[in-house]
Amino acid sequence: MEQKTLISRIQKGEDEAFAELVTPLIEKGYRTSFGILKSKEQAEEVVQNALVEAYRNIMSGKEITYFNTWFYKLVSHRSIDAWRKNERLKESPLEVDVVTDKYSVMECLLKEETENEIKKGISSLDNSDYKIVLILYYYQEQAIQEISELLGLKSSTVKSHLRRARNALKKRLIENQFIGVNTQ
Fold it and tell me: With contact defined as beta carbons under 8 Å apart, do 88 and 140 qualify?
């Protein structure tokens, strides 16, 4: 049945129409979330919250032209938000009692500072698709084909997003004077 018809039925109070609309999307939504979070429990929670948010948006009369695409983006964005929250909660990798000389301390501090600047740079990117692709590719170590399947994009589009995201991130790091202009 057409999605617009299902959405109309949901707005009229037919709960079975919501199940009919979202049931085919749940598995892919879960795989998308799990691909980002690498946690069964967190992925399940994100999908559950996305379903609640989707229902509320439908009931509030939000115009959703392509529900499938909208729902997968919602799951992706909520998964990235959860991933960021997890990253902020992680403890610093620097353990002073393990480090034995001043060069090791400096290397650890520089590495941590670099990672923090890159994370800030990714977070500050305007295009959310670029953020998603960077996180999946570099932090979740997903292959181009896997990202393509997770996000429902062509491989060439994922490659293009990745290239543009790298350039945007490089530009952002240069603007913040974290890397020099001649850096490749």
Answer: no
**Which is it for the CA torsion 110, 171, 139, 156, positive or negative?**
negative
User: Phi-psi region for residue 94, left (φ > 0), alpha (ψ -120 to 50) or beta?
Assistant: beta
Q: Which residue has the tokens 């009919």?
A: 20
- Cβ-count burial 126-161 (b if 16+ within 10 Å, e if not): eeebbbbbbbbbeebebebebbbbbbebeeeebbeb
**What is the rounded CA–CA span in Å between residue 53 and residue 146?**
26
Rounded CA Rg of the chain: 20
Tens of pLDDT, residues 13-54: 998 999 999 999 999 999 888 888 889 999 999 999 999 999
Q: How far apart are CA 25 and CA 68, in angstroms?
A: 7
pLDDT at 94 > cutoff 50 = no
State the residue for tokens 């001649």. Answer: 182
Residue 8 CA to residue 14 CA, distance in Å, equals 9
Instruction: Tell me the two tokens of residue 148.
Output: 């393509």
pLDDT range class, residue 127, cuts 50, 70, 90: confident
164/145 Cα distance (integer angstroms): 18
How far is it, in rounded angstroms, from Cα 135 to Cα 175?
21
